[in-house]
Task: structure prediction
Amino acid sequence: MKVIKYLMQFLLVAVLSAIYACNEPEPIRALIVSGQNNHNWKVSHRAIKQILDNSGMFISDVVLTPPAGGDMSRFNPNFDDYDVVVLDYNGDRWGEKVDEAFLKYVQKGGGIIVYHAADNAFAGWDEFNKIIALGGWEGRDEKSGPYCYIKDGKMALDSSPGRGGSHGRQREYPMHCRNAEHPITKELPDNWLHAQDEMYDFMRGPANIKDLLYSGMSDAATGGSGREEPLVFTVDYGKARIFHIMLGHCGASLENNPAMQCAGFQTLLLRGAEWAATGKVTQPVPNDFPTNAAVSLRKDYGREISSK
Ligand code: ZN
Result:
């Protein structure tokens, strides 16, 4: 009888474990591409990895290119192993084989995050410029496409000549929601205060923005364009789900990094990554999301959330 009792208990545990395993969502696999940047990529890619991994929703890997001028043949990521690819890269071209693999991944309907200076990269690569929609620096000018800004609540294009990419002095600034129905923005406050950061302005490109999610006023008094600038959006590029976030200029260290420690930035990165990977957002609005009056820093990149 005892044997039967143990057997029954064993079966019960096995069945419950199986049910539990079925209910537990599979983690989303993310690949962070870094290794060269005119920014502090040694800190930024670690911050991104912590934000993703600490959420408990993602498992991320990092792939680093060789340093500038290095042998790119050693850089051969397998994009297809991942649900979402986070671009934290601005440097040498990858080479034909990786370029091709990347385009194939995106065109098959891959998930992409374009993070901050990743939109400075590859100014001469037309297809990449369509994947980011707007870019700056690295020789971009009127040949790259129009400037794009918000006027009277609508997107306006300006083809006048001039260089692409600029920003005023770093500051805290209000974020203005432009589409409250998108899965990434749904139920987040319409206006909230972002922690100290650069605000990119005068960006130019094909401007194939799909859904503009947030904009911000680039204050002329602090060296900005004086225009309402698109800062967070999705890109219209075939079947791909591309989330472009211009926020998040990386600081000197993980500890001194307000733009990436901002709970608003981290929330958008996580929601954008889930959307890019799955087309949905299941994450609730966090309690520490910034308000329109106060910034909110998540200094440990969400570690306390995963330990709850
Ligand atoms: Zn920057």
